[in-house]
Specification:
Residues 1-26 are annotated as: Disordered. By secondary structure, the protein is mainly alpha-helical. The chain has a domain at 27-67. It has 3 helices and no strands. The protein has helices at residues 30-36, 43-56, 58-63. α1 crosses α2 (43-56). The longest helix has 14 residues, at 43-56. The N and C termini lie far apart (45 Å). The mean pLDDT is 79.
């Protein structure tokens, strides 16, 4: 019996486009913005994210960070 896994199993196929997400396609929180910026989730960074979303708008604040 062959010990190598079958290369055609579902786990080896590319992820469908409908499951891939980039940019600000959905709803997100200040915590999401902090994480997208590469910072730790702290009260100071959450306050930064909330200010950024208020100043630039929710979508624009995330679009600047993500492709």
């Amino acid at each position: 019996m062959n010990a190598e896994p079958d290369k055609t199993t579902a786990g080896d196929s590319p992820t469908p486009d409908r499951l891939l997400h980039a940019g600000s396609e959905g709803d997100f929180t200040a915590e999401d913005l902090v994480l997208a910026s590469g910072r730790d989730v702290t009260p100071k960074n959450l306050a930064w994210a909330e200010r950024r979303m208020a100043e630039k708008g929710r979508r624009a604040s995330m679009d600047e960070l993500l492709p």
